[in-house]
Amino acid sequence: xxxxxxxxxxxxxxxxxxxxxxxxxxxxxxxxxxxxxxxxxxxxxxxxxxxxxxxxxxxxxxxxxxxxxxxxxxxxxxxxxxxxxxxxxxxxxxxxxxxxxxxxxxxxxxxxxx
Length: 114
Hints:
four-stranded antiparallel β-sheet; 39% helix
């Protein structure tokens, strides 16, 4: 009886670890999709920073857990110095320029320009 319990425990752990790995890889591809949709939604906020001396970067964070399934997310956009490598890099700091919040169904809830 103890051997059956051990085998079942090992199988449950393997199933759990496989599920966690699948969710992690799905979440990474989902963050790229969210960043693209967020960039489109925040187009007006980002427009003044295109070209010139700015480089726009994005980061995706999980902000909550949904009741049935999934998570809520926030994509934040930052403007920082654009370094081309030919001279010294400007020293002004990176600053937050826009955020886009996504709901449980990956719908856009809010776009905020700073």
